[in-house]
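To whoever picks this up:

The parser on our side crashed when reading a file containing two proteins. I've narrowed it down to the boundary between the first structure block and the second sequence. Both blocks are reproduced below exactly, byte for byte. First block:
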Amino acid sequence: MNRLARIASILVLIAAALTAVTGCSPTGASLKETEWRLTGWTVSSIDPASVTITAKFADGQVSGNSGVNSYSGPYEAGAGGTFSAGPFASTLMAGPEPAMRAEAAYLALLGQAKSYKVIGARLTLFDGGGNESLSFDRSGE
């Protein structure tokens, strides 16, 4: 093996090792062991700042506060940014009507998400058409 080929091989191995250690995908950082707070979505009638909606990704589960109730369910985040989540289980507390609408909208959008991207401290989920549906800022660290 010539010197250039050997160097290229070493660089590929280093890149693979770094990807394995950091859990990074082509879309940015991994979702494993991260916590987020909703900051934006496609529901124009409800300001996401008016409710507390969170998402924590750990051990193949996404969980958090969906506005009024706590929720959890399975998720998968694959290579190339593929994403799926649900079905979700939730506590059954009642709350103010606007927060209940926000909760229903959030869980629907989360269940419809098909891809994700993490850049820095921002997580974005996209629907099946590639449209941005949910935006989060990193929290809890």
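<<boundary where parser fails>>
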Amino acid sequence: MAVSDTLKTSELLADAITPKEALVETIIRPRGGWASLNLSGVWEFRELLGFLVWRDLKVRYKQTYLGVAWAVIQPLVSMVLFSVIFGQFAKLPSDNVPYPVFAYAALLPWNLFTGVVNRSGTSLVSSANLISKVYFPRLVVPLAAGLSSIVDFALSLLVLVGLMAYYRFVPGIEVLALPLWSLLALLVGLAVGVGLSALNVRFRDVGYLLPFLLQVWMYVSPVAYSSSIIPAKWAWLYQLNPMVGVIQGFRWSLLGTAGTMGVPWVTSLLLTLALLGATVLYFRQVERTFADVV
């Protein structure tokens, strides 16, 4: 058989096995603008998100003697220390509310915020084996780590109910807004944690910076004190901290303290949405390098 006949026979066989009409060229290009957030991809992997949340909860309390009681012990100890140091010794004002209730009402959103930031900020590095082997939207990892903090928050909220009953403090109709403040505290934590998780992949200093950052942040937030002690001329600068509006909102909903509605919560909401959009957009832009760097 001639060489030309052999080549022709090979082409005919190739066409029979793989018809030319079946050959489709697919070009993948990154999305631009807000479409690059690809939040629909996170929704498609919602089962993985739920599994990672459950995994984090199991790992956190595995082989611990007290188990989930640690979620209650931490805010209780902080409340006692604040009550003694700031309530008894420093005599800081508590807006005519028993100081233990006043402090605990602020520790609830603050611990939710810090829990989300701590866990989501280091989640990518701790999930290096998963990220380097399987493809999925990497945003699922910090989201799952942050959402697992909701369980601790719910347990701590039950303690507040008992504390308010002990002091015979009954909340008003404002308590119906409490889920909104809880959601805002969660969003602030995710806005910070998602951005730090992406930075932590490349700069491991972030893991060492986190405790210091949160400690400083607590002192510039009205956790142990009332925002009424802030001079009026500095109020606009103070309210640039999104946790100010969140903590004031919690106290307004639970304790009915005045002066919390209006500008502070509006500022917190706008800052949170802007920060969340910016950090998620940055996360999506750099996530393609996570598997190589982590």
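After patching the parser it read the second block fine. Residues 159 and 204 are 36 Å apart (CA to CA). Residues 32-36 have pLDDT under 50 and may be disordered.
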